Q: What sequence folds into this?
């Protein structure tokens, strides 16, 4: 993934592990039972979403890149190209202003040395996780908790809360309330808090949500090409729209050895 705020703080690189108490939901009706056929495979809430997005197809590729344009309050927030391994172990962000931020699997670097460093570590972990979250719901370290159904656009959605075990990623105290589309099983939305740079109690005073739309198929993987960001509360649900993102030029590829390696003029970014 971790895990996120309006303009300034949204989250982190996160990994996940399926909770054994997570409710299992049949993938399909009991077709063929009684005819010697095997019972249908039973999937959990998170597994249903991953299957709907075709995680298997996504993970068959070594890396993926995409262009991203972010706006908040009508003003540009970020424009550039994200390149990442499909398991999020390495990430590169090439901004339109010439700044490059790289997570090499261990440390985060920025170049050139004169580049603005504020928010750079947040950027390298946040946007790639928002993009990849439908494929990371059963990664090691995840904890799931069933929630009551919630409304969005006059439709009821099954929801579950995603949190993380201690020492997972940069912000293990982040959590998400995941909305699953009842018709497609795809990820519809995710409410979240961002604890990066703040205490969990403070972050929980200001939760937000991201809504995914305009799904397109890339090498059999289902990827949302439009995101919208909103205020959110557990009682009132989705509020004012705060921003939006457009994803384009999605490409799967095999990365060159140097792609995720910091250049000589890079500077190490500390936590």
A:
């Amino acid at each position: 993934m971790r895990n996120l705020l309006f303009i300034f703080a949204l989250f982190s690189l996160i990994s996940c592990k399926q909770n054994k108490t997570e409710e299992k939901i049949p993938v399909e009706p009991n077709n063929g039972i009684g005819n010697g056929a095997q019972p249908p495979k039973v999937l959990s809430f998170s597994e249903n979403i991953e299957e709907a997005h075709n995680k298997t197809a996504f993970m068959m590729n070594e890396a993926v890149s995409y262009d991203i344009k972010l706006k908040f309050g009508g003003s540009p927030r970020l424009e550039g190209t994200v390149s990442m391994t499909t398991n999020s172990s390495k990430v590169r962000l090439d901004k339109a202003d010439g700044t490059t931020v790289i997570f090499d699997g261990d440390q985060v670097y920025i170049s050139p040395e004169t580049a603005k460093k504020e928010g750079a570590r947040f950027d390298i972990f946040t946007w790639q996780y928002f993009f990849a979250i439908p494929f990371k719901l059963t990664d090691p370290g995840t904890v799931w908790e069933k929630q009551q159904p919630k409304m969005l656009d006059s439709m009821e959605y099954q929801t579950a809360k995603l949190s993380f075990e201690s020492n997972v990623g940069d912000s293990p105290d982040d959590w998400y309330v995941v909305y699953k589309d009842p018709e497609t099983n795809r990820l519809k939305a995710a409410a979240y808090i961002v604890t990066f740079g703040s205490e969990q109690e403070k972050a929980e005073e200001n939760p937000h949500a991201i809504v995914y739309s305009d799904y397109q198929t890339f090498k059999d993987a289902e990827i949302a090409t439009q995101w919208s960001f909103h205020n959110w509360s557990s009682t009132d649900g989705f509020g004012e729209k705060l921003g939006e993102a457009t994803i384009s030029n999605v490409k799967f590829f095999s990365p060159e050895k140097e792609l995720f390696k910091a250049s000589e003029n890079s500077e190490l970014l500390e936590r």
About this structure: Residues 1-21, 24-35 have pLDDT under 50 and may be disordered. The longest strand covers residues 237-253.
